[in-house]
Amino acid sequence: MLKDEIVNAINEQINREMYSAFLYMSMSAYSSSIGLKGFANWFMVQYHEEMVHAMKFYEYIQRQGAQVRLKALKEPPVEFKSPMDMFTQTLSHEQFITRSINDLMELAIKHKDHASQIFLQWYVNEQVEEEENDNDIILQLKLINNDPHALLMLDRELAARMMTVPTDFSKGVEAAMSATKAP
Ligand code: FEO
Question: Measured from the CB, is residue 20 less than 6 Å from ligand 1?
């Protein structure tokens, strides 16, 4: 059984993960609008990853017999200055998410909630990967330094990012994740 303080904090985190999905979907739409279809693909895959993050929390609350409470999402930005602007905003958003996951972990430790600590460990690891991915692309964008030819080459590379994340959660998140695992 979860403490109310933990249920409330996880419900807030569901909102943050869904806002992340919303933000990256907006970046995908913007990338498409300026002809960067590879960037659009990368952000759309990221959108799906964020939905998995939200759905894992959703399922965890329900499995613990508590109630999911969804909240309104704020409107994401719709215009961006450049690919670098999108990725610096993405990194800073992910750093904010990392801090919120760490706060959740601190709360679970405070309440001696071992199940939640084990569950949250997946997110702690995931955030290391999220920030690493963003940092890698920012470094590449610095090297590109507004060279259109190099930017199009990166766009082609980002077009190859595969959708290995589940989109059908009807049988639960874990079942969807194992059904869509890369061979
Ligand atoms: Fe769900 Fe990108 O953190």
Answer: yes
Q: What is the pTM of this model?
A: 0.93
List domains and CATH numbers for the chain.
4-177 (1.20.1260.10)
Indicate if the pLDDT at residue 174 is higher than 90. no
Of residues 127, 117, 160, 116, the one with CA closest to residue 50: 127
C-alpha of residue 33 to centroid of ligand 1, in Å:
24
Per-residue tokens: 179: 């059904």
Tell me the pLDDT tens digit for each residue of 88-97: 999 999 999 9
The atom of ligand 1 lying closest to the CA of 53 is 1
The finding on whether 94 has its CB within 6 A of some atom of ligand 1 is yes
**125-140 per-position pLDDT tens digit:** 999 999 999 999 999 9
User: What distance lies between CA 178 and its chain's CA centroid?
Assistant: 19
Q: Are residues 121 and 108 in contact, defined by beta-carbon separation less than 8 angstroms?
A: no
The number of the ligand 1 atom at minimal distance from the alpha carbon of 126 is 3
